[in-house]
Specification:
It comes from Faecalibacterium langellae. This protein is mainly beta. 9% of the residues lie in helices and 41% in strands. It is built from 3 helices and 12 strands; from the N terminus they run E-E-E-H-E-H-E-E-E-E-H-E-E-E-E. The chain has helices at residues 41-44, 63-72, 122-126, and strands at residues 4-16, 22-30, 33-39, 48-55, 77-84, 96-97, 107-113, 116-120, 164-167, 170-182, 187-191, 201-206. It has a 6-stranded antiparallel barrel. Strands 5-4-3-6 form a 4-stranded antiparallel β-sheet. Strands 8-9 form a two-stranded antiparallel sheet. A hairpin with a 4-residue loop joins strand 10 (170-182) and strand 11 (187-191). The radius of gyration is 23 Å and the shape is extended. The two termini are 13 Å apart.
């Protein structure tokens, strides 16, 4: 069965396995998530559930969202995400999902928003080389270099690597292993790094490759 949950990145730490080997893990506060909407083939053409995570004041919710939560008879949620599942018959609006939907050893794909790094040059953004400063380089050692051509084609081709905004994009890290699940505190420890800074909202779902 395909499983999914919304969580919040807490930070990184390390755990030890039975052989004493260090495992770097990212701790994610996963759930509790409430089923806000259930989509079926008959009504929507596909099967999915919409989960809500995090409390928010009713005063901070617009009319459209307030009506959506009122129809489901659930308290307003800060974050909504949809998960396509193979079978939603066992789930109903109002059900609560917790960290125990996953178990140690499961393979998951984690989706988050990477850290924003602002406006960056080509060296930091793409790993390009500096110019040689042996003679006559001037104050442009870290610049991108020549861009266009002559009268043909008289333009810069799309996709050329140039300075610009770096980071703050949706990133999916695939095939991470769940190392430990703390059901009491709704925490999931995932081996390896997860995109985003502390407090970033992430989603966990079954790995599409495993």
């Amino acid at each position: 069965m395909v499983k999914g949950i919304i969580g919040k990145k807490v930070g990184m730490t390390q755990l030890f396995d039975e052989n004493g080997k260090v495992i770097p893990v990212t701790v994610i506060e996963a759930g509790p998530c409430t089923v806000v909407q259930k989509k079926t083939v008959e009504s929507d053409g596909y099967q999915a559930v919409q989960l809500g995570f995090g409390e928010v004041s009713a005063k901070k919710v617009n009319k459209a969202a307030a009506g959506h939560f009122k129809k489901a008879n659930v308290a307003p949620k800060k974050t909504l995400r949809e998960f396509r599942l193979e079978d939603v018959s066992a789930m109903n609006v109002g059900d609560v999902l917790k960290a125990d939907v996953f178990a140690a050893g499961d393979k998951v794909d984690v989706v988050g928003v990477s850290k924003g790094k602002g406006y960056q040059g080509v060296i930091k953004r793409y790993g390009q080389h500096r110019l040689r400063e042996s003679h006559g380089t001037g104050p442009v050692a870290r610049h991108a270099g020549s861009n266009g051509s002559t009268s043909t084609p008289a333009r810069v081709f799309p996709g050329k690597r140039l300075p610009g905004h770096m980071g703050f994009v949706r990133v999916t890290v695939q095939n991470l292993t769940v190392v430990k699940v703390d059901t009491e505190n709704n925490l999931i420890a995932v081996k390896g790094a997860v995109p985003g800074s502390k407090g970033t909202i992430v989603t966990l779902a079954n790995s599409v490759k495993a």
